[in-house]
Amino acid sequence: MTRGAEVERTGGRTGDRTAEADRHHVRRRSPVLILGLPRDPAGPRHVAGFLAVTVLTVLVTRGLLALTGFPQLGGDGLHIAHVLWGGLLMAVAVVAVLSWAGPVVRPLAALVGGIGFGLFIDEIGKFVTSDNDYFYEPTASLIYVVVVVLVLVGEVIHGRRRDPHETLAAAADLAVAGLAGGFSPRARRQARELVAGAGDVRGAAEVRALLDVVEDDARELPDPISAVARAVVTASRRVVRVRWLPRVTVGVLALVTLYTVVRGTVLVATGADLPWWAMVGLLASGAASLVCSAAGLRLVGDDRARGYEWFRRAVLVNLLLSQIFLFRIDQWSAVTGLVVDLLLLGVVAAELDVLRGRSGEHDVAGEAAEDTAPAR
User: pTM for the whole thing?
Assistant: First the structure.
């Protein structure tokens, strides 16, 4: 056998082993990735923005209708309900996402789609009653349940750890916009951080080389979702620097939770004329939140991060469970409680972010997604 033939055979075996290793690695990926569906690191922010705009649209719509005496658009037996405008805006958002490649259109679609979905879901009372009753009493609870379910769906999708291939795919996704319109300094930094976070996975060198040839362009398209998110994060991190504020936050959380338990107990004891499931649910969720708060108080002295994780769970129980029953019992009280819980969650999340930063924990993809708006 000649030396050339031996080298050729050796090279062939090496190539076969490499190909087999690649196939084995592909099989180890999640089924979603194998189907070519990597998650967008900015996805949680876009979903949160979509739902926040949805809730805000419902509140603004109900407020404006109340102030104007609930007018009807139409005549001669016709009524153009705002659910139609909501469907139109949702269609516009879907068509935009289907028509333009890259990440730039997604935050705008989240904004337009959120307004549309808010106008749509606001009329849920008409959909579930035989007499098309817009003022159906449990409407607020139903809307809140829909929002909570979507929050949980988003958590299921984005809650698990990211595969390095997803991080690399996110960098390549940014390159789509960059190749068309260039990179701003922030967008280029974001893309490079994503590639670095992906490590040495197959294709990283090629994506890195692709980013290097993207032209510079200081202009950035408007991204209201990212702008609001950055402002909230910045404000929250400044707030937690006030030393006494986390203690006040814990105190307010304990009082809110205790109030929920006491109110549920009083409603059950007095036999209030309300659905039994709402009263029992309020009592049970309040008790669960109180247990989480007590666990946080017990741990926070020795392990501040673990303690605040339990405080976060207490607030989430209030948001995802207690508020559903409160909206059925007293809508105005529920709106107030919702605002308080959201503020508490913001402070607790910011404190956890600071504590994790001190311990060196971080999510490269998440940080990169928060760092910039889409560029053109």
Answer: 0.75
